[in-house]
Design brief:
The chain is 76% helix and 1% strand. The chain is an all-alpha fold. It has a single domain, classed as Up-down Bundle (Growth Hormone, Chain: A). The chain has a two-stranded antiparallel ribbon with strand order 1-2. The radius of gyration is 20 Å and the shape is globular.
């Protein structure tokens, strides 16, 4: 139990480190005097760095004992996050976010690798649901806190660094050594081994699969908050906060409520989705979630001024379904590879995910614009 809790804590902090940027889109744009495209670049600096680091990690991730590697990388992540809190301007924050992303991206893949190495496939869906509930906790606890501290942006990063230090100690005490993969290390050209792993037919299908999942979520999420307040009145993921405040007409003070409801619902649904995936089959559950998630996704990007309860119902469904897809998806992907090369494979999967989410944020930032009336235009095209 404490083993999974420690892994979930690591996931929580590095996801929170990325998540807090999204609902604070309006504050970052105002405080740093930047536009939506520059905000998209700031988000993508984290994801692109994570993608590059994930590729680099393939050279060594299967050659070290998992526990030592995880805790060492987590320590580096803590230092990078602390530096983000000390960054004086946009450009230095951009660089600091890239370093945080580099370590955070490897951490995410390594946590999933450790679960796949330690938990049988029959129970893996529930275990992944437990650890991936970290996303929910980050929205329930972290996002409202970040919005509460909106006038002191450096405090967010310093707070995350402090919490991460406590979790580092917890992980040191509860995560066991994992060495089974070391018995299968192959000597020879590492580059040729990685090339073979990447271009294996079943692996390529997994990479494309995970890439499209990230594209469909992170082209919408960054601007939700801005759209809801300016066009409809609310906020959701990278641009969700921007969209909800600028277009939907949702007051900035309600953004934390949207994340709170979405996070609580996802926290409750994550383990249930994992259980359903184990019981009825990962593929069947994923297909159902993928199809149903299209409804709140399209509604979110076309929302007009509506009552608060309508926004809450839709945004909560968006969080539950879009994030819920990842639970059976990761269980499916983790099974297509042999244990001896799973670390390398999952690092490549993580790189593809981060690259896709970074591209989604950049492309969405180029598509959506803020009109003279302060509302966000072309968000429906992203949907």
């Amino acid at each position: 139990r404490f083993f999974l809790f420690s892994l979930a804590g690591i996931q929580f902090t590095h996801i929170l480190d990325f998540m807090i940027m999204m609902p604070l889109g309006p504050e970052f744009i105002r405080e740093l005097n930047i536009n939506t495209h520059e905000f998209g670049l700031l988000l993508s600096s984290y994801t692109f760095a994570a993608a590059i680091a994930g590729i680099f990690a393939t050279y060594f991730v299967d050659r070290f004992e998992r526990r030592i590697l995880l805790l060492s990388l987590y320590g580096c992540f803590i230092v990078a996050t602390l530096i983000c809190g000390l960054a004086p301007d946009y450009h230095s924050l951009f660089v600091a976010r890239a370093f945080a992303g580099a370590f955070g991206g490897i951490l995410g893949s390594l946590v999933q690798t450790i679960i796949a190495d330690s938990i049988p496939f029959e129970r893996r869906g529930k275990a992944l649901g437990t650890v991936m509930a970290a996303f929910s906790v980050s929205t329930v606890a972290g996002v409202p806190l970040s919005l509460f501290l909106a006038n002191n942006i450096p405090a967010f990063f310093i707070f995350i660094a402090l919490i991460s230090t406590l979790i580092l100690y917890l992980g040191y005490r509860n995560i066991p050594k994992i060495t089974g993969h070391l018995d299968h290390i192959h000597e020879g050209s590492r580059l040729s081994q990685i090339w073979t792993i990447f271009f294996a037919k079943q692996h390529l299908r997994a990479f494309v699969f995970m890439g499209f999942i990230m594209l469909t979520g992170f082209s919408v999420i960054p601007y939700i908050a801005l759209y809801l307040t300016a066009n409809v009145g609310f906020s959701v993921i990278p641009y969700i906060a921007l969209y909800l405040t600028a277009n939907v007409g949702i007051d900035n003070s309600y953004i934390s409520l949207i994340y709170l409801c979405g996070g609580l619902a996802t926290l409750l649904s994550s383990r249930m989705i994992g259980h359903l995936a184990d019981k009825y089959g990962k593929v069947k559950v994923f297909r159902a979630l993928a199809i149903i998630s299209l409804i709140p996704l399209l509604v979110t990007t076309n929302l007009m001024p509506v009552p608060l309860w309508v926004v809450l119902v839709n945004s909560t469904a968006f969080f539950v379904l879009v994030s819920g897809r990842m639970i059976p998806a990761m269980a499916i992907v983790s099974q297509v590879v042999d244990a001896k090369i799973r670390g390398t494979f999952m690092s490549l999967v993580g790189s593809v995910q981060m690259l896709a989410s970074g591209l989604a944020s950049v492309i969405a930032g180029m598509v959506v614009t803020i009109g003279s009336d302060g509302k966000m235009d072309h968000y429906n095209l992203v949907g």
